[in-house]
Amino acid sequence: MKPIPNAEGRRINWPNYKTGVRNIYFRMKAERDFASIGIEIGHADEELQELYFDQFAQFRKMLEVTVGEEWSWNLHQENEFGQLVSRIEKKLPAVNVMNEADWPEIISFLKPRIIALDEFWSNVKPGFES
Asked: What's the total number of domains in the chain?
């Protein structure tokens, strides 16, 4: 992915994507039983976290058109560290990052979605910066 520029034509560190907005993260995971990609809202204040989530909901159709599919929307759930977060994500079940034979499927799942997510974010980010 290194040679692929972001939606604005700049170089980007795709695995460590920086949204530029505090408490909003793009997460890509490849585990022993699934791969996933999504938006994670990690604001400690539950009401502000819900406000961000509602803002994303206003752009739901745009996200679905950009990524070409529906994603799961989960308000207020615990992450692996016991913190309350909200997620908008897509999962690929039944793949194992430890199985090299699954790598092409995992990469084919993550790559187009992170590129589409970047395109979506370049359009909606101004609404989250204030």
From this structure: 1
Q: Is the pLDDT of residue 67 over 80?
A: yes
Residue 107 lies in a domain: no
What is the pLDDT confidence band of residue 98, given thresholds at 50, 70 and 90? very high
pTM: 0.90
Q: Please give the order of strands across the beta sheet that includes 24-30.
A: 24-30, 34-41, 84-93, 72-78
Q: Is 76 part of a structural domain of the chain? A: yes
- Residue 1 inside a domain? The answer is no
- Boundaries of domain holding 54: 44-88
6 within 8 A of 12, measured Cβ to Cβ? yes
- Per-residue pLDDT tens over the stretch 76-94: 999 889 999 999 999 999 9
Cα–Cα distances in angstroms (integers) from residue 24 to residues 3, 17, 61, 76, 108, in the given order? 25, 11, 19, 14, 24
